Each structure stands twice: as C-alpha cells, then as structure tokens.
Amino acid sequence: MALSGVFGLMTARGQVPPAAPGAVTAIDVLIDPDATMVGHAEAANARLLAAYPINAPIDGIPNFSLDATHRPHITIIQRYVRTADLEKLYAALGKVVVKSNVMSSGFEAIKYYYIPYKSVGVAGIVVKPTAGLVRLQQEVEDAAAPFTVATGSSEAFATSPDDPDINKPTRDYVERFVTSQMGAKYNPHVTTGVGTRVFLDKLLAEKFDGFTFSASGISVYQLGNNGTARRLLKTWRVAQ
Fold first, then answer.
1. Of the residues 66, 68, 134, 193, which has the maximum number of CB atoms within 10 A of its CB?
2. Cβ contact 7:98 at 8 Å
3. SS3 of 39, please?
4. Full-model pTM
5. How far is 96 from 86, CA to CA, in rounded Å?
6. pLDDT digit string, tens, across residues 57-102
7. What is the dihedral of CA 234, 192, 183, 106, to 10 degrees?
8. Residue range 187-198, pLDDT digits in tens
C-alpha cells in the first residue's frame, strides 16, 4: 500500500543556522528503525566500546556511543546539498515518501560487516537489500539530485566540542556515495561503532542470528563523523 495516511509529517527540529552564501550541508536521508533493531545496534555498540574506548582513537578514527545525537539508522543516500535549498529538498522528498510502499513491509538483518580504514573499521549490521529498498533509494536520489553539489568541507557536517573534526573517510564516503553505494552496489546497514580490524574479524567469524524488524519513519539528518546521524532536520513518522 502507499504511505498516504500511514505517514504523518513531524515538524523539523534542530535546523541548521541560516545559510551563508554558498554554504553546503552533508545530509543523510535515512530510515529510522524500530526498537528491535535499535536494541541490537546498542548491544553491538556496547561490545565495540568495551574493546575500543571513545577516548583512545586509533588512526584518527574515534569511537562513539549510540545516543540522541548518534542515531541508529539505515542510510538511503548521503549527499552534499546547498544549505539554501534544504526546504526545497524536503518538499521533493516528501512527495517520494507519501507514495512509497517500502515501509509497509518488514526488514531483515542478515550479518555483521565493517568498512576498513588502516588498522580499524567502522562496523555495522547489514540489512537485506530488497528490490523495494533499491527502488526507494533511486527515487530519493532522483528527488534530491537538483539540490546537490559534488563535494563539501568539514564545515558541511555537524560537529561538537568532543568531536570537532571530520575525518577524511567520512568526507570521501559522502562524495563517492552515488558511484559506490547506489543500485546493485547498495549495502543498507545500521552503523554500530568502531573497532580494530583484529576485533572486527573475530566478530564477523561469529554466528549471526538474523532477525526481522520494522521502521518508524524516514528522516533527513545532518551527518557527523563516521556517517553518524547527528542533527535531525526533517522527519516523516509512521502514524501510530
């Protein structure tokens, strides 16, 4: 079924400041998972934090706790967009959201994975890439494309005093998203934290007990380090 009547529009909060001329925002258009996935992600995050403390980064990649400013999520697309065009972007995405039928189906978590960088990796739980998810990704990209730019600096991201710098792998991932993560290359997942590659290889060797879950909405966030969803810009929630 279509999502008209299933989704309700929630007023945006945490808006970025008024745009300076030429300002760019690094965004993540994402699916918000339900409590089932959030619980699994938080458990995985706790294991990673026990082995790789936040205050002991390796190769310049700090770990993080999943919390109110590091929300568990499934990325649909990551892009650099013109900050002045954010309201136009929301309007275009809203038309996609209310027509989509993807959210009326469940999702399946199938394995752990990580993206390596030097001696560490950014870890996550992989979600089965169904035809519906791939189709939604393309529809979202088509809606966002008129407002995007090719690249952006660290100023495009949300930072904080305890995490003031955006590392190069994060910046590059957004820049290369369309060429490396679209269509048949799409790897939907929930990022769970950072670990050493030695630890993560052991984690991947463990038996993964797959599970199903649902979604609570679709949102737009400003990105932070390591692909984290730091600042909520706009959200469409499943009606309860």
1. 193
2. yes
3. helix
4. 0.90
5. 16
6. 999 899 999 998 899 999 999 999 999 999 999 999 999 998 887 7
7. -80
8. 999 999 999 999
Topology of the domain covering 23-238? Cyclic Phosphodiesterase; Chain: A, (3.90.1140)
Q: At a CB cut-off of 8 Å and minimum separation 6, what does 198 contact?
A: none
Taking a C-beta distance cutoff of 8 angstroms, is the pair 203, 112 a contact? yes
- Are 230 and 16 a contacting pair, CB within 8 Å? no
Closest by Cα among 157, 155, 150 to 222: 157
Task: Please give the Cα distance from 56 to 63 (Å, whole number).
Answer: 8
Q: Provide the β-strand partners of residue 125.
A: 112, 190
CB distance 59 to 120 below 8 Å:
yes
Candidate from 143-147, 176-180, 226-230 with smallest mean pLDDT: 226-230
Nearest to 194 by CA among 221, 225, 162, 222: 225
CA–CA–CA angle 183, 35, 25 (5° rounding): 50
DSSP symbol at 160 = B
pLDDT of residue 16: 58
pLDDT at 6 over 50: no
